[in-house]
What we know:
Structural class: alpha+beta
CATH superfamily: HIT-like
Number of strands: 5
CATH class: Alpha Beta
CATH architecture: 2-Layer Sandwich
Helix content: 25-40%
Largest sheet: 5 strands, antiparallel
CATH topology: HIT family, subunit A
Bound molecules: adenosine monophosphate
Strand content: 15-25%
Number of domains: 1
Strand order of the largest sheet: 1-2-3-5-4
Radius of gyration: 17 Å
Number of helices: 3
Shape: globular
Amino acid sequence: METIFTKIIxxxxxxxxxxxxxxxxxxxxxxPINPGHTLVIPKESYENIFEIPNEVLEKMIVIAKxxxxxxxxxxxxxxxxxxxNNGKDAGQEVFHAHIHVIPRYKDDGYKLWHGKVYExxxxxxxxQEKLKF
Length: 133
Ligand code: AMP
C-alpha cells in the first residue's frame, strides 16, 4: 500500500533522514514527542508488525537501539521509549510499519499509560492460560 512513508523513502516528500541501508530507513518524526523523536521503517511496505518478516524486524530493532544510544549520547536523553502502534485502535495513523524511538527527559511532563487492576485473580489466570506458550 502506498503511504506517505513510501513517498519519503522514494524522496518524493522531504524528510530529515538519520539512517539508510538497503532494507531500513530512519528519519525524524515531523511532530516529535521530544526533539530527536525518530521513526525506523522497513523500505518494503509492510502494514504492521505482523506482516514484517522476522529478519527485517530484527534489523529494525537493532537500528532502533543504535538510534536510542545516540539520543542518549548526543541529545543527553535521560531515558528512551521504543514503541510501535499496530492497528488503528492502537493509535496507528500511518499504515507502513514503524518503530518510534523517543528521547525522554526527567520532568518532560509525559507520563506512561495508567495501569488497571485485574477484575479478579481468576480473570488473570484465565488470561495467562490463553496467552502462554
Ligand atoms: P503512528 O500514530 O504510530 O502511525 O505514527 C505516525 C507518525 O508519523 C506520527 O508520529 C507523525 O507525526 C509521523 N509523521 C506523519 N507524517 C510525517 C512526515 N511527513 N514526516 C515525518 N513524520 C511524519
